Queue: 2 jobs
Job 1
Amino acid sequence: MSRIVVTGGAGFIGSHLCKKLVENGDDVVCVDSLFTGSMDNIGELLEYDNFKFVEHDIVDPYFDEADQIYNLACPASPPHYQYNPIHTSKTSVMGTINMLGMARKCGARILQSSTSEVYGDPQVHPQPEEYRGNVNPIGIRSCYDEGKRMAETLFFDYHREHGVDIKVIRIFNTYGPNMNPDDGRVVSNFIVQALKGEDITVYGDGNQTRSFCYVSDLVEGMYRMMNTSKKGFTGPVNLGNPGEFTMLELAQKVIDITGSDSRIVHMSLPADDPTQRKPVIKLAKKELDWEPTIPLDEGLKMTIPYFKEKLGL
Ligand code: NAD
Ligand code: UDP
């Protein structure tokens, strides 16, 4: 049994991770500012004696004793991370320094939830971990992309300078229950629009691609990375589902599965929106014996009932 701190534990991915850890019997402390997370996501966990919630912004110093720290705190949807971009940068830089400082003091292993956004609008396709990316340092996505790149830098400097035991994963687009219906990301937008019979908003021509991973697959990969016995394996390691779809294909799938009569409409493409994205997961397969098991159609079918209930439909 371990004592584990999960920052961002009331968010979409964090809530699934906390549930897995609590059910494993670990002592879990969820540290979250509730900026994009919600108490609804962790409501059932509050019943457990081995789960504790602490409302806290990691930009401010935090200390607790722990064996492991999962650092997930950071808004992940473009509208949310762009809402207060300076705070997003602070979360990835000052917040990460605070959590690395805690790991150093108490000797905890710490895992950073980095992102495929470190590859920016990639000119290499699909993306292996060695690719250094094509990121605009001054655009509207930079607070997130450059923040996450800086967080990786900090992880590796704390590792080299102070011997902190680090693990870095690069998460590709993940979806599933517990996403906030107002989150603004494509899977939640399309499902909510289809269920309400509203227009499906495809940005640009819809030929841009993403690779979508179901949340239980992602959490399994994250857990394996944290608990790997290969001590020298720090990552970064890509975690994602290599199935690649255009946004038009995704819209059509959602319409078909929900049986909606929504129409597809096109809206302007946000600045710096990556044109293509697909992970190379050779490293995760080799080092973690991990690969996703849930294809997009199946994952959408498991996600849609959650949104139906959330919308009271
Ligand atoms: P989310 O927005 O649902 O969850 C983020 C959580 O962090 C929320 O509960 C939020 O309240 C909390 N938070 C934000 N800023 C904070 C701060 N300063 N202090 C404390 N708590 C704070 O997003 P998610 O999809 O669950 O993402 C979780 C992590 O995974 C993020 O670090 C994100 O960058 C990373 N990630 C997610 C995806 C994805 O597709 N979901 C892809 C790549 C990376
Ligand atoms: N997108 C879209 N309609 C929406 C929301 C997003 O067409 O209602 C597009 C967006 O322009 C991007 C893709 O879907 O090309 C994925 O967007 P999301 O915000 O989910 O994730 P990210 O861009 O961070 O990968």
Note: The mean pLDDT is 97.
Job 2
Amino acid sequence: MRLTRYAAAAAALGVVLTGCSSEAGDQAQDAAENTVEVQEDVSFEAGTTMAEINEAGVLRVGTKIDQPGFGLANTEGTPEGFDVEMAKIIAAELGLSEDQIEFTETVSANREPFIQNGQVDIVIATYTINDTRKQVVDFAGPYYEAGQDIMVASGNPEGIEGPDDLAGLNVCSVEGSTPAENIRTNYPEATLTLYDVYSKCADDLLNGNVDAVTTDNVILTGLVAGNPDAFELVGNPFTEEPYGIGLTLGDTEFRDFLNDTLEQSFEDGSWEAAWDATAGAITGEPAPEPPAVDRY
Ligand code: GLU
């Protein structure tokens, strides 16, 4: 119920962010227009991924669609959230409007294959940069630093304060995610239930099938916001999850372009505006300091 209401609110926000409504006086709209301005006169060296995407007139982006604040499908099925705003910022620098972004749902486990198979140009999907993934895809960023945390039923009936307290309990996460791997490897006394998406874990917690859900704090914050009477966040992050933009391994020119674009968005206010309009609107927190881009 709350989730649906949030989706409706986000949809309304989306209208403001497109900057194409008639209410030109709206301050938020002005801010969005100032910060995510599509570059009209772009030119890229022939043969580069930037030139190819610009010529194709489509940026194909893999993202989540069930994570409030980062990537959540609105009532029309269009994803909205901080990751989606990052995609708009990238598209604008490629000379493409947000209407020229083709979003495909990626779940945690299929992000690398979608990039490797060329099904998407980039993945922006609460996607942690790590050495295992770097063997098969490249990353621009980070553009945000999250941390693994735990969501429990309201009132925290099992008294869970951190991952050690999960021993002997049922905890839910998602296949192919770093939080699931962390529990499997470092907290084997917890019983792990795995789904393809986190919204199914939230359903299991609601129904009492599991005692806890674990993933990144910002994802859990979005789920708590969707059902604040039923859920609460433990609020004790125990890993570092730097979010990157996944792209084809070895495409250095494109990675440099993405990193340049991210750094520019940190400077010109568009990254902060994206935060304020999406994840920040849920957490009520101001945008943090942007992380330092890692040009590894
Ligand atoms: N950031 C973590 C990961 O990339 C967890 C979130 C997710 O599954 O998208 O695996």
Note: Residues 108, 125-128, 174, 177-179, 215-216, 219, 241 surround glutamic acid (CB under 6 Å).
